[in-house]
């Protein structure tokens, strides 16, 4: 029996991906200046205020640099993460009117704390996913542009996939709220993302009997981890005294992949829709704890989409050929 396709749930913020050229290939591996050194500075003698890259990306770069240096030839996707993050920081910093780069802006962040000797790839990746550097950086404020949000989520998704290669379970990679107390505006954003989680869980039930055998376990684990995300969001909304929207009984027919003709792409689309919803929360939420949860939830969904798309080792899932508006 043919099952109707699902109506896409809009993200809390409409942030379509732009397309364009990929960043350049240079990798930043050193560490010199602290995160605080990237503040708004007046260029000496010229009165120009230098730009400031997002603190979250600088924190992610510090962690990627640490992992590359520690893991060496086994760093894998972390090399690409360092490259992508450094390139985005250079783009955000731009150039002065005389064409020179503001070095105080583009300089590498201070190296992240090095775990104990003997710490393996598994522990390093988990630390890079949940490091205190990340919520501290998110306390600096929301990310200001769409593209840095996508970069941050793609790097997080890449860490998730690398951790899976290191035999970390999906359950260990599912985010938890830690001390977040959403106000009314953030509660509304979480409710919007919750709608995408409801849709995904329903949709995986549609996809499960249709996917090829190689994806059967993936549909089951996807539904399980997104139920945990759903339950965590409901718990936080309840604790905040906010209204929790109920899941509808079903979803109306809509465009997109046909679950009968291409169930794998259908499942990938569900994950992409959830990732988009969580990127909207990351971009708009006021509470740093909500932004931190959204970052991890977006990365988790982008990693899931890569699995269904046949790219389970993608370095930056969901980034693809995207570039900031106006080039990059």
Describe this protein's structure.
With 328 residues, the protein is mainly α. It has a single domain, classed as Up-down Bundle (Ferritin). The protein is 52% helix and 0% strand. It contains 11 helices and no strands. 46% of the residues are buried. About 13% of the residues have low confidence.
CATH class: Mainly Alpha
Low-confidence segments, ≥5 residues, pLDDT <50?
7-49
For the largest beta-sheet, the strand count, sense and barrel status come to:
none
Fraction of residues in helix = 40-55%
Q: How many domains would you count in the coordinates?
A: 1
- Taking the alpha carbons of the first and last residues, their distance comes to 47 Å
Beta strand %: under 5%
Name the features.
single chain; 328 residues; mainly alpha; Ferritin
Short description:
It is built from 11 helices and no strands.
Write the layout of secondary structure elements.
Elements: H1 55-71, H2 77-93, H3 103-106, H4 121-130, H5 133-138, H6 146-165, H7 170-173, H8 184-207, H9 213-239, H10 263-284, H11 288-308
Helix pairs in contact: 1-2, 1-4, 2-6, 4-6, 6-10, 6-11, 8-9, 8-10, 9-11, 10-11
């Amino acid at each position: 029996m043919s099952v109707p396709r699902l109506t896409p749930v809009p993200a809390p913020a409409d942030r379509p991906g732009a397309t364009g050229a990929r960043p350049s290939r240079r990798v930043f591996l050193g560490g010199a200046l602290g995160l605080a050194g990237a503040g708004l500075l007046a260029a000496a003698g010229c009165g120009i205020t230098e730009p400031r890259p997002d603190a979250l990306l600088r924190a992610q770069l510090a962690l990627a640099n640490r992992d590359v240096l520690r893991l060496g030839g086994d760093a894998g996707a972390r090399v690409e993460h360092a490259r992508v993050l450094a390139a985005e920081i250079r783009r955000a910093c731009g150039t002065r009117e005389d064409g020179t780069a503001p070095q105080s802006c583009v300089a590498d962040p201070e190296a992240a704390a090095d775990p104990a000797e003997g710490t393996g790839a598994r522990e390093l990746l988990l630390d890079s996913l949940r490091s205190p550097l990340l919520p501290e950086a998110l306390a600096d404020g929301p990310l200001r542009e769409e593209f840095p949000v996508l970069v941050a989520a793609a790097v997080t998704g890449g860490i998730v996939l690398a951790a899976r290669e290191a035999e970390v379970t999906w359950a260990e990679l599912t985010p938890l709220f830690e001390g977040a107390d959403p106000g009314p505006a953030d509660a509304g954003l979480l409710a919007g993302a919750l709608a995408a989680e409801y849709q995904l869980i329903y949709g995986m039930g549609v996809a499960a009997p249709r996917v090829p055998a190689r994806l059967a376990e993936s549909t089951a684990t996807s539904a399980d981890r997104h139920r945990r995300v759903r339950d965590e969001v409901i718990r936080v909304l309840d604790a905040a005294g906010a209204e929790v929207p109920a899941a509808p009984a079903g979803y109306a027919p809509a465009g997109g992949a046909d679950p009968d003709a291409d169930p794998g792409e259908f499942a990938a689309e569900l994950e992409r829709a959830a990732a988009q919803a969580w990127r909207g929360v990351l971009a708009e939420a006021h509470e740093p704890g909500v932004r931190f949860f959204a970052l991890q939830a977006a990365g988790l969904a982008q990693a899931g989409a890569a699995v269904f798309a046949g790219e389970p080792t993608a370095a930056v899932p969901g980034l693809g050929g995207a570039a900031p508006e106006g080039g990059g």
